[in-house]
């Protein structure tokens, strides 16, 4: 194989690297090495954008000093006008030579040139559905810019490399569009039990910080239940979905009828049955008499085709009708 592959060879090779079953950092390093075989450069870096922290982090790099890398992940991505143009207006990669007087602007004059570079380019990375995931930086000590054909190759590589840098990448077999299908609200549940707003997605009602659902999500047990029915304080039934991503757990909410034609009240009762509460405690939580609770339990057993409360609770958790029980708490549920 030629040490200088054609643009098509380069795109094919990078695509093959990106789907290898290896850690993202290893794939990113291999991508940079492959790009360096085709495009003259002295330094290169791939950074991911973490939507939880709202910051960029280097995943792999070649040839940059720590001060330059630090600037690329902070001042450059937050203040450089050329970068902001690429991220928010026109995603086409830009070279220094594409920006009038760039050598006298802060990034070049104060950081890149003192760092030993005379030209460079940055490519913002976007997935097929338009989400920004990070950036590819290339720098050279030669004043000659990379070629127009190399820019076209970088454009082809934007969506190839973007998934490797994607802190919000969906599980295998899913797309971001699938995960958000018909969702009225969405947020990210972090490993340290915080619910974070994601760019472009709503969480202004039942996923807002003061919502009873958020309290249940933060207190709930983690496990294999990826979805469950939840009744809002207005008495409407919703489907809550939880999908594990690299950056945390994506939580989505949409209004939907419960399985097995369960009424909203029956969903509430079944949730508390699965949590191990007896009829008196369920009645106390929902302001119902024990007799009324017993009637609801009878209807639930009939609809689920179960003979006992234990069987109904097991089926409800196994079929993801209700969440796994968390620590005991007083549910904040609808009162009708």
TrEMBL record:
Residues 255-320 form the HTH luxR-type domain. Keywords: DNA-binding, Transcription, Transcription regulation. This is DNA-binding CsgD family transcriptional regulator. InterPro entries: Sig_transdc_resp-reg_C-effctor, Tscrpt_reg_LuxR_C, WH-like_DNA-bd_sf. GO terms for biological process: regulation of DNA-templated transcription. It comes from Nocardioides kongjuensis. The lineage of its organism: Bacteria, Bacillati, Actinomycetota, Actinomycetes, Propionibacteriales. It holds the Pfam family GerE. PANTHER family: DNA-BINDING TRANSCRIPTIONAL ACTIVATOR DEVR_DOSR. PROSITE patterns: HTH_LUXR_1, HTH_LUXR_2. GO terms for molecular function: DNA binding. The keyword Cell cycle does not apply.
